[in-house]
Amino acid sequence: MKMNKFIAEFIGTATLVVFGCGTAMVTGCEHWGGYLLTALAFGLVIVGMAYTVGNISGCHINPAVSLGVLLSGGMEKKEFIGYVIAQTLGATAGAILLAVIFGLGGITDATGGLGSNGLAGVNGSVVAGLLVEVVLTYVFVLVILGVTSAKAGHGSFGGLIIGWTLVFVHIFGIALTGTSVNPARSFGPAVIAAITGNPAPLGCLWVFIVAPLVGAALAAKTYQALEK
């Protein structure tokens, strides 16, 4: 098993957190302009990484995406575990870098938690938060499986399609949950925020781990059924 795949996933996920969560930290996501900029940041990172590490690891940079690929028969269990570890470490490293940059620069974190996800937008409802994240991840992973299918024939446009899908998913979800659709992206900022003095995001972190994985599993089963 080649380590370069795991290194690529580490780099890609760290980049996603630095630029996606970093943009959320700067804008605060408190108005439509902040929503749009953050959504674009996350989507454009996916586009950039798709054309950078996509040919090496497939540019999953998301445990939910890797689960969807695993359940669709696109990777082995050992490789899946390696991907998830690399993605989680990458997200954590990205969050650490943000904490250092904002700390050294004396920059205010407008999100209050390194761009962590939360349930404030759904009035603290765990059920609503779970439903939002399941739906968002389901759509995102379903698009990825369709775009990357050998039958699709999208070729070099795949990265653009996936990136813009993440943009529209964020536009809808940011005001509700901050939009996770990615357990690693949620884990890194929440853990580092807790270490640096804000344990609040840890309280609902499980929602942003469980829901994306459920959404990805449903997407994989749906796409398998549609392909038959």
Question: Could you describe the 3D structure shown?
Answer:
The structure is a single chain. The chain is mainly alpha-helical and 228 residues long. The chain is globular and about 50 Å long. 71% of the residues lie in helices and 0% in strands.
Topology readout:
Layout: H1 3-27, H2 32-50, H3 54-57, H4 63-71, H5 77-105, H6 126-148, H7 158-177, H8 183-195, H9 207-227
Helix pairs in contact: 1-2, 1-5, 1-8, 2-7, 4-5, 4-6, 4-9, 5-8, 6-7, 6-9, 8-9
Averaged pLDDT? 95
Main beta-sheet annotation: none
Taking Cα atoms only, what radius of gyration do you get, to the nearest Å? 16 Å
Report the count of strand segments.
Answer: 0
Helix-strand pattern, N to C? HHHHHHHHH
Helix content: over 70%
How far from one another are the termini? 31 Å
Low-confidence runs: none
Strand content: under 5%
Class computed from helices, strands and strand pairing: mainly alpha
Number of helices: 9
Cα shape: globular
